[in-house]
Amino acid sequence: MSRSWVIYAKAANNAEKGLLSYSPVWFLFLFVLMTSLSYFISVILATKYSQKPSTVDQQTNVSPSSFFSSRGFINASKGYFFIMLSILAFSGYLYVEQEFNSVSSVLVDHAQYSKELIDNHEQNYKEGLTFIKSTPIIKAVMNAGQTSSSLPFELSRWKEVLADIFKAYMQSQAEMSQIRLISAEGQGKELVRVERKGGEVLITSEDDLQNKGNRDYFVNTVNLHNGEIYTSSIEPNIENGEMELPIRLTRRYSTPLFYPNGAIFAILVINVEAQPLLQEINRLSKNGEIIYITNEQQKFILANLPSMVDDSFSEQGYLWGDAFKRTTNLFSALNNSLTTWEGNKGSLLSAETLVTPNPGDVTGKLTVRATFSAAKVYQNALLLLLKQMLIFLAFSILALMLFYYSWANNTRMMIASQVRKELEAKNKKTICLKV
């Protein structure tokens, strides 16, 4: 994910920001630390080394094999590796936490934006339904039905005009698949129906109109007050009692129409294809992210595998709970924005949001889950840690070269100094003997 290239002034209160491995300040700190340690240790080693007898050849004493086999170097290496392993362990923890927080931010944003897309989509078609309801022809149809002496409403001279208006409106709404006026009495017989078939907008003949009185959206809509709009679940379209194949996910928006005296006479329904909206939401997912959407029954509406959606609406059914089980981990437990789910391919981190179009009713509720593989979070953190290890290795080699160079020079100077002192003492002794 993203990395900052500076250490902020408030880094003292946020260790994660203060220890990002790609900060130039962090590089400078490591360089100064390692070179200072190397110089300090080399001086100590050289001092100890100079205390050895001078009978050892000077060139041998400063050879790399002597340097690496010296007790001082071995002890210093143990301390150095302990410090480096401690830094790497702490950095590894910070990288994992950083990746979890970064993934969390992306997932929350995508879940929230998906909700906004659904809300905007819903609002658009609710406004369209209100527009159709407010056309003069609808009012004329109500008046005609109310003044009829032989039928609850007489629509024969209005159906053709109303169907033409429905057709014209549908031609401007590419995602709309049907507009219907359905009688509120009896078996809920369709009075006018216009639908999209094979790319064409067609007016359904009288013989092909269906009864819809047993459908959930009909039952719920006839119980609404004037001006209220019902939003159905996203589900496969059903014609003549059977689900259309291949599955065509549809959402319905409906509102009741009333006589001036308050008695209901029909409901107005528009069917909207859900697939374009779902495809737009699915395009948000990148770099291994998967967005799932389930309805109020936890059936899959959007998934990474089309078979999961198909299986959800089969006779056996396939629900979210069948595919994933709730679990937890340290970082998701500390992050209230994420939940963890265990599936066939490992753990998923999930940011979730709810869409509830019908207040006080679960019908039409959608659960949007923007997910990312927990294993990939650890993999990303491991890659960052490996990069840091390579950087540490490069600095360690540089520090080792400076370490050896400083140690060799100090050792040569001290041995030379010791040799001079020994020669001076020997000369003094010789002079004293001669005297």
Short description:
The protein is of the alpha+beta class.
Account of the protein in words:
It contains 13 helices and 15 strands. The chain is an alpha+beta fold and 435 residues long. The protein folds into three domains: 22-102 and 380-434, no CATH class; 123-274, PAS domain (Beta-Lactamase), CATH 3.30.450.20; 278-374, Beta-Lactamase (2-Layer Sandwich), CATH 3.30.450. Strands 1, 2, 3, 4, 5, 8 and 9 form a seven-stranded antiparallel beta sheet that branches. A six-stranded antiparallel beta sheet has the order 11-10-15-14-13-12. A hairpin with a 2-residue loop joins strand 13 (339-343) and strand 14 (346-355). The longest helix has 63 residues, at 71-133. It is rod-shaped.
Question: How is this fold's topology laid out?
Answer:
Blueprint: H1 15-18, H2 24-50, H3 58-61, H4 64-69, H5 71-133, H6 136-147, H7 159-171, E1 176-183, E2 190-197, E3 200-203, H8 216-221, E4 230-231, E5 235-236, E6 238-239, E7 242-243, E8 249-258, E9 264-273, H9 275-282, E10 290-294, E11 300-302, H10 306-312, H11 320-323, E12 325-327, H12 330-334, E13 339-343, E14 346-355, E15 366-373, H13 374-434
Antiparallel strand pairs: 1-2, 1-9, 2-3, 4-8, 5-8, 6-7, 8-9, 10-11, 10-15, 12-13, 13-14, 14-15
Helix pairs in contact: 2-13, 5-13
Label this structure with key terms.
single chain; 435 residues; alpha+beta; Beta-Lactamase; 7-stranded antiparallel β-sheet; 15 strands; 19% strand
Q: H/E series, N to C?
A: HHHHHHHEEEHEEEEEEHEEHHEHEEEH
**CATH superfamily of the largest domain, called what?**
PAS domain
Percent range for β-strand residues = 15-25%
* CATH fold name of the largest domain: Beta-Lactamase
Major sheet summary line? 7 strands, antiparallel
Ranges where pLDDT stays below 50 over 5 or more residues in a row are: 1-22, 49-60, 148-155
What percent of the residues sit in helical stretches (DSSP H or I)?
Answer: 40-55%
Radius of gyration: 39 Å
CATH class of the largest domain: Alpha Beta
How many domains would you count in the coordinates? 3
Distance separating the two termini? 84 Å
What class do helices, strands and sheet pairing give?
alpha+beta
- Overall mean confidence score, pLDDT: 79
- Total number of helices: 13
Q: Total number of β-strand segments?
A: 15
- In CATH terms, what is the architecture of the largest domain? 2-Layer Sandwich
